[in-house]
Amino acid sequence: MNGAAGLPCAASPQVGDKLPDVTDRGPRQRAFRAPAWLEELVRTSPPPVPWRDVVRFAVAVPAPLAVAVTVAVAGGIEPGPELGAGVFGTMGALAATLAPQSGPLRDRLRRIAAATAFGAVGLLVGQYATGGGWAPVLVIAVISAAAALISSVNAALSLGSLQLLVYTAISSGLVTPLPLPAEVAFFFCGAAWATLTTLVQSRTESTDPDRASVAAVFTAVADLLTADGPEEVLARRRDLTTALNAAYDRVIRSRSHSAGRIRELSELAGVLNSAAPLVEAAVAAARSGRPADPVDVSAVRSLAAALRDGGELTVERPPPLEDGSPTRRAVRHGVRLVWNVVGDPEERAGAAAAAPRVPPRVRLRELVDRTLASTESRGFAVRLSLCMTIAEVARQYLPIQRPYWVLLTVAIVLKPDFGSVFTRAVQRGAGTLLGVLLGSAVLAVLPRDAWVLVAMSVFAGLLPWARGANFGLFSVFQTPVIILLLDLALPGGPGLVGARLTDTLIGCAIVLVFGYLLWPGTWRAPLDEALRDAALALDAFVEAAFTGSPAERRRARRRSYRALTELQTQLQRRLAEPPPISNRAAAWWPVIVQLERTADAVTEAVIAQREGEPAPDLAQVAVLRKAIRRLEEDVRAHRLPDDAEIHADGVLGLVAREVDTARRLVRETAPGRRGT
User: Fold this and answer.
1) 66-75, 270-279, 607-616: least confidently modelled range
2) What is the CA angle 89-92-95, rounded to 5?
3) Residue pair 61/70 in contact by the 8 Å Cβ criterion
4) What element of type H or E holds 539?
5) What is the pLDDT of residues 2-37, one digit of tens each?
6) Could you tell me which residues come within 8 angstroms of residue 229 by beta carbon, excluding any fewer than 6 positions away?
7) Burial letters for 483-514: b for 16+ Cβ neighbours within 10 Å, e otherwise?
């Protein structure tokens, strides 16, 4: 998320200022409270209840097992081939049910396919990770490294790589009377059933996610135009950037890969392209602090409603604005441009740039850059392989009642992605422990009959709500589903509860020690790279703003704000780390806010130039860009910037002042970073 810093007269953030409460939890109290990093770690955002997903999860997950119990074995739950068929069918249903998230149907189906395919591969590979000796250790190490590299390709494959690890772990210790081909076949049957429920749910949703994502951009523009006060402007500006990122990812990227609905996606891409002047004008208007024209706000909300619902525009097109402030005229001009495109389908299609065809060689090079050539990907592959290998050794040599549970815990806690290892380990570890107690208690109380299926349905129905709240809360309800499922296939004795808790603690300890503490890169605040990327993207934005074409400026602006979004994400992750990581991350907060101010100042300069201000001297642009690049070098080399001020005239004056402030903040922050 990125944003403006508010009114130009607002004081720049100082390093000594208290870190703003970036999670909007209300005013801070003077009474004693837990450390900020601990609050961030346990923070849970109460999400709305996604009722359609709740119903789908509650029905789809236990259904294959219910069929096996009620039809094949006459209402009882006894070990046998029929029960094994139901267990593997429910495994497939669970993998395919968890995979979809909000978004276009094609993205949901892509995630289902990845989860199902990799889950099936895990079932096959797990057969070679049983028994003792070095062969299972080698299998686990290789499959873990592959999962880590695969997870760096995209979100769908990251999900698939997790399923690969989970079902490899389960298959290594789960014994059923079914042959392996039958197990995989029933797994696919369960996944097919869950896919069918996803298709049925999609038919009940009245709003097209593609259209809704584009409409959200205009809703965010209207909210920014009506924002009151620097803090609200900051929040609304970040909301706008988030909406833009989501819309471009969903529409334009989907258009480049989709074989169907090309015309509709092309029209929506045209609307996004035409919105660039309006977005720039809204940012400049918010920075000016002057109230927006109600006519423009009403028009923008009408554009959002028409796009979201596929209906007609409900108000008249605003007339041209000949007088008023430059920012008001720019907003009106942007509204009229989008109005022409939204009101005319031919204009919508014409406004979309042709989807670029990426040569296979370029795609292969990009794939290598994200996986084998990436230091981060290789490092994570080593950490994941090390943790899973140690878990496999523990499985072989420790007296564990459920030997696969340590492997399963490590796979779930050290999920193949690049979030905060500490945060995820603690949240998922604590959630898994609570889930073990909850699931074991349910098994101890309920008889082995249909009531177990009811409990499984309840826990499954809670998963989509918990997923939107907190990793740990999601694990609290996911773990009982897995426990109920696996204990039906392999009934255990009364001592199994304590054994599960011990195994879970072993798995969490392996992750925290061998996947976190032994790797300095995971517990030192790794904001430097994100800061450098943001500075370099800002440099490219300045170049395109004053020397490039409108299309180049639009692309550079998106890249700059995307880099700032990643910077904010890295900051939020590190705020949940224990000291001194969270303290060092918090020290960079003023610099991050100032970089956002600078990017918005560039946008404001573009608007001023468009409204008739003289173009800046290219020599001054070169000096400004050199100062921004020096800022990046200062961050990379951990050195103090010089004290020289940048002098610029005209539209560059405000940008130069913002860059000077950013360099001063780096000077004030850098001494506290020595030794990081």
Assistant:
1) 66-75
2) 150
3) no
4) helix 528-547
5) 333 332 333 333 333 334 443 343 334 444 455 555
6) 6
7) bbbbbbbbebeeebbebbebbbbbbbbbbbeb
In sequence order, what are the residues at sequence separation of 6 or more whose Cβ sits closer than 8 angstroms to the Cβ of residue 611?
326, 329, 330
Domain ranges for the chain, please list them.
51-205+375-522, 209-351, 526-576+579-673
The pTM of the whole model exceeds 0.85: no
425-445 pLDDT, tens digit per residue, is 677 777 878 888 888 888 878
Q: How many CA atoms lie within 13 A of 16 on its CB side?
A: 0
CA distance 170 to 94: 14
Amino acid at 113: A
Per the structure block, which two tokens stand in for 35? Answer: 């450390």
Span 30-39, pLDDT tens digits = 444 555 555 5
Average pLDDT, the chain: 77
Query: In whole angstroms, how far apart are CA 64 and each of 342, 430, 447?
Result: 47, 30, 19
Short-list 183, 146, 170, CA closest to 395 = 170
Condensed to tens digits (0 to 9), the pLDDT of residues 334-388 reads 888 888 888 665 544 454 454 456 677 777 777 777 777 777 778 888 888 999 9
Whether 256 and 356 have beta carbons less than 8 Å apart is answered as yes
> Is there a contact between 483 and 72 (Cβ–Cβ < 8 Å)?
no
Between CA 583 and CA 577 the distance in angstroms is: 9
Cβ burial, residue 418 (10 Å; 0-12/13-18/19+): middle
Count the Cβ atoms, other than its own, within 10 Å of residue 453.
22
Q: At what angle do helices 180-204 and 51-60 cross, to 10 degrees?
A: 150
Instruction: Residue 287: name the closest of 596, 4, 603 by CA.
Output: 4
- For residue 557, the surrounding DSSP H or E stretch is helix 550-575
pLDDT, residue 93, reads: 94
Question: Residue 103's CB: how many other CB atoms inside 10 A?
Answer: 18
Percent of the chain with pLDDT over 90: 14
Mean pLDDT of 72-94: 76
Concatenating the DSSP letter of every residue in 250-308 gives IIIHHHHH-SS-HHHHHHHHHHHHHTHHHHHHHHHHHHHTPPPPHHHHHHHHHHHHHHH
